[in-house]
Fold this protein.
Amino acid sequence: MYYDVIIAGFGGQGVLLIGDLLSLTAMEEGYHVSFLPSYGVEMRGGTANCTVVISSEEIGSPVVSSPHAVIVMNLPSLKKFEPMIKPGGLLILNTSLIPEKEVKRSDVERIPIPLNALAEKLGNTRLANMIALGALLEKTKVVSFRSVEASIKEALAQKYHHLIPANLEAIKKGAEFLRNSK
Amino acid sequence: MLKKVFIKGNEAIARAAVDAGCRYYFGYPITPQSDIPEYLSKVLPKLGGEFIQAESEIASINMLMGASAAGARSMTSSSGPGISLKQEGLSYMAGSELPGVVVNVARCGPGLGGIAPSQAEYFQATKGGGHGDYRLIVLAPESGQEMYDLTFKAFDLADKYRNPAMILADGMLGQMKEPVLLQPPRKMDLPDKDWVLSGAKGRPQNIIKSLYLGDKELERHTWQLWEKYQRMKKEDVMFEAREIKDARLIIAAFGSCARIAKSTLRQARAEGLKVGLIRPITLFPFPEEIFRQASIDTKMFLTIEMNTGQMVEDVRLSVSPGTVVYFYGRPPGAGSLPSPDEILREIKKVYEPSSE
């Protein structure tokens, strides 16, 4: 098994958090994993992003030039990462902030989700990242929801532990959205 | 059962230092290594140790010198310009034969440069940096696990040779999270530290110095240091070699570049290209012998670095006559991490199928 994904958005959208959660969960499932975040100047203003590689074999490069999947939470991220997706790969995009007409590639599978709108319905726009993760998990089954449930405590700082149920609910919501839109 | 944790490379270094018995840390914050002092500032005081955020990098290397002279395992860390500031102290430590561990989570230069991953400090780390005829022990990790294992090892090597040891990493290795098994490697059998300044009551006085004014005294001292460096070359060279037996071309790379090239290696082999990899783990002592041996049969080498060509000089000095050593470099800066595909393209530019 080998899977890699780039997750991108602007600082504060929680793209590093879902990358971290996905990686940690994959490690707990017994996979090799690397989580390479952008750091420093990119944190403010521009895009924050991370590259997650999950593999049943030892991981070579944590740097990926043509990922299997890309999750983009805002328009600058789409511009930057859409061209890189492997042909036939997956593009999950946040249509609350990205007009779908901006998508150029026709050789990738497109999953448009109004992440912010759905998160608002759940009562907290900051859950948009978890909805995206839910969609990725539903689509790829790269790790199981049950494993995420088990590892989320370690990925979230103690002071956010009271939000775990809401986060898990958001992940379910993302998966459900995908199932219903088929 | 030993615990596998999912942590940043920087934290792996800090944890290894604690597990290796380091109780004293002196430093000054700088991206991308500040997670190291952050971790140690929380942990060392609880263990009866001392964490000092010094007024400068120069102060912190001199504090390291003092702690080391008193016999304590101690560490400092920095990046780019901060490491430049520490060079005078490193020269004094090497001259005074004081152990100690210095971590360089390298960023780009020259000058302020940038904070992206860089390998532009190969020369500075391996060829001096400070004044005088000395060498550092330089270890180049490629993963979170090696950030842990090699930091542990650096303390042992520094004590074994009474010489400062450097971990040369970069922002990719420092900021990346990977699973790390916190298993301390077996500690070396080390000689007693009978040279430390611990109060001379009841024993002859110990003197630690790097000033030798007597006739031929400094020359003798410098040859003694040289002998130590020769011993490092005999006893403590580390490298990794992959698929070099039948290779037509061998990639030479260290640290992040080697890690990225491992994916290239897999791709190349899948396409039927006979490509191998030699990854120096000790940059000093440099693994000269494996390059000499491997180049008896393989006449084509490609050195890959995140700079304009530094380690390539040592590769060229090490290979057998008649070997061609190509170079591909990406000078460091935002967006300049090479990708596996890119390295494969470079291989194909020089790789020609064998006529056999």
